[in-house]
Amino acid sequence: MMRKLAFWLCAAALGVLMVALSGCGGGTNSETRAGSVGIFVTDQFHTQYSQVVFTLYRIEVGRQGDPNSFQTVFEESSGLALDVRALANLAQFLGVGSLPAGVYNRARITVADKIQVTHAGSTTATLDLDAGLGRPVGSGQLQFEFPIQLTVVASGNTTLIVDFDLPSFSIVNGLVRPALRHLRDDELGNRRREAELSGTITALAENSFTLQLRNGRVVQVQTSAQTVITSESGNTSTLAVGQRVKVYGAVNPVDLTITALRVKIKDLDEDDGVNRVEVKGIVTQIGERQFTLRLLRARQFTPQNAALTITYTSGTRWIHDEGQIASPDQLRLGMEVEVKGTLSSPGEIQAVLIELEIEED
Fold first, then answer.
1. For the CA atoms of the chain, what is the radius of gyration?
2. 273-356: which CATH topology?
């Protein structure tokens, strides 16, 4: 029986991706027992850059010399873009997957062959990764392999942390040579373990619900009187089975449950196919019916630049991160913003929903 595999991303003085593995018993055949895996990432690309954006597609684990042993523990076919420098002092939970019990000593990570960076002086650039250190796999993607020491136990929990070791990155002949390493769970220190996951509610109890992710795996979410429940449309704040939601919270590394600080019901129109995207970033410029974001996180597309232009119309919905109606005049430089909209060009999004993180006085 296959078990959960949880995925985390975190970045700090180093860039680290953590995969937390939870091994559970089950079934009568010991060969089919598996462990749950949680994945994190964390970071550091020297003080030269204030922003380093990787687009992540896949993480696999296996055994050296046995290509058939590699199994996918995380996959985002359209790409998950992350500013690994912004992950300092936290571990970002990516989801759950399944991995058979056993010992694994190699990991592979597939990323876009280019990264977007911002120099300390605010100049942005796109840099090529060194294909000589990785393996081209087509579609503008490179695969890098590195050693790990991971034991998945059939009735226990463990974690795999993949470290984007930015201080050890180098640029040779204009190409970036990334450095990846396995970080032990006890090396994660006191970094916060945070979740920001989307999925579908498949079961609902008084103070908890089951969240099914896109890969079919599930995580348990705990709620309380302090959990803020909002919706994109503003029409409801009541959770129900079948709803698409986004959960923000803290993760228990022992049982991989999420304690929700906030749950957002995703009930705005999901049409427009592959052009519909979601991004998070920091406001760096404000103009007439548009503003610029320094990218922190993006799904559904591979960014071409470290900054994005967000345009809006009178029909764009503005909300506070705790659900209250907001307005364009509340937008401020340095504010963290989430945007849902349509990709009108590689560097421009026409916003349908703009969500402001407004700090309380």
1. 20
2. OB fold (Dihydrolipoamide Acetyltransferase, E2P) (2.40.50)
